[in-house]
Each structure stands twice: as structure tokens, then as C-alpha cells.
Design goal:
Number of helices: 3
CATH class: Mainly Alpha
Oligomer: single chain
Structural class: mainly alpha
CATH topology: Substrate Binding Domain Of Dnak, Chain:A, Domain 2
């Protein structure tokens, strides 16, 4: 099982990093919804950093959880329409 956890953690880290590069605010950044878009991006970036920290500490379970939560912020932002993301491909479920 540890090999599966390590592979999944690697995959989710790459997925979150790629998704962060592709996601952009879909609303004016000067509006309240723009604040929500920026918060989604900031939270996803913070979870990416947290996951990397957990990985360095050898804590793959929390690293995987952090990468997953980060991607959840991006998916949520895309679903409510504050983030512009690719509609095709493997990065998002929208």
C-alpha cells in the first residue's frame, strides 16, 4: 500500500500544480466576487504549499489530503463561476 499512496500523492500534487496554472479569475477582480476568486486561488496555493511541507516531513497522508483540498477550492470556484478553467482535459470536473 505505501507505493500506492506515494504514487497517488505524486499524481495529486502534479494535478493541483497544473490546475493552479490554468485557473484564472472569471469575474472583475475589483468586485466582491473577484475577492472570492482570489481567495479560491490563494487557498489552493496554500494547500499546495502545505502538501509539499507534509511530503518533506514524510507525512504522505496529510500531503495527499492537502493536495485534494486545494483542488477542491479550484473546482468549487469553477462551479460557482468565479474561476475560468479549461472545460476539457483532465484538470477539472466542470
Amino acid at each position: 500500500m505505501p507505493a500506492d499512496l506515494a504514487e497517488k500523492t505524486d499524481r495529486y500534487e502534479r494535478l493541483l500544480a497544473e490546475a493552479l496554472e490554468e485557473a484564472d479569475p472569471a469575474v472583475p477582480t475589483t468586485s466582491p466576487l473577484g475577492d472570492a476568486a482570489e481567495e479560491c486561488l490563494e487557498m489552493a496555493g496554500a494547500y499546495l504549499d502545505d502538501g509539499k511541507h507534509f511530503r518533506e516531513e514524510g507525512d504522505l497522508v496529510n500531503a495527499l489530503a492537502a493536495f485534494s483540498y486545494g483542488h477542491g477550492w479550484l473546482d468549487a470556484g469553477a462551479r460557482i463561476g468565479v474561476l475560468d478553467v479549461p472545460s476539457s482535459g483532465h484538470l477539472f470536473t466542470v
